[in-house]
Write a structure and sequence with these properties.
InterPro entries: PRDA1 (IPR038961). This protein has 183 residues and is mainly α. Helices cover 55% and strands 5% of the residues. The chain is elongated and about 65 Å long.
Length: 183
């Protein structure tokens, strides 16, 4: 009888969860994911637009794309509502929400892609912003190394532009576009 009630409960919760906004769904998934590496992979996939994710228990689920800032803010809102109560009903959930909030904020890096820092997108040229945006959502490994290597060797995003520069023909200055840091 208890297992039947658990199945009904889980079915109802799954149905209701699908009606929630993507960032709320992701916070729920992150709270259920115990391993740090799995949570980071989940956050990377969410930031990259969603897809299929295999959790710690080997179950595959479809995850939506969501904004990391929205995820961190949602976890923060839940934390605030829990902390304002006279007694905290579930300390484990409170701890997991703190972890979710901090990991989402850390993935934003507090820098370029962190929406809390609007000036970060204005101080770098658009080519660099685009490159770093692509780089941040990738899982560390060979693909990231290749992408960085290509840029450092003047391929892909690192290729020099054929646009004329303000420096003149005899200038020793670096090119004005690409990843050189000049616009």
């Amino acid at each position: 009888r208890n297992s039947l009630l658990e199945v009904v409960k889980q079915t109802v919760l799954d149905h209701l969860t699908k009606k929630c906004p993507p960032h709320v769904q992701v916070v729920g998934l992150l709270c259920q994911t115990e391993k740090k590496e799995s949570r980071h992979e989940l956050l990377r996939r969410v930031a990259a637009g969603g897809g299929v994710f295999e959790n710690d228990k080997g179950l595959k689920c479809q995850i939506p794309g969501a904004n990391l800032n929205d995820i961190a803010n949602q976890a923060d809102d839940l934390l605030e509502s829990m902390e304002t109560r006279p007694t905290i009903p579930d300390r484990k959930l409170l701890a997991r929400l703190v972890i979710v909030r901090e990991e989402a904020r850390n993935m934003m890096g507090g820098g370029l892609l962190d929406e809390r820092n609007d000036r970060g997108l204005n101080t770098l040229p658009q080519a660099e912003v685009n490159f770093l945006s692509k780089l941040v959502v990738l899982k560390p490994g060979k693909s990231v190394e290749k992408m960085i290597s290509d840029v450092m060797h003047g391929k892909e995003e690192g290729a020099d532009s054929t646009e004329s520069t303000n420096a003149g023909p005899n200038s020793d200055l670096e090119p004005s576009t690409g990843t050189s840091g000049r616009v």
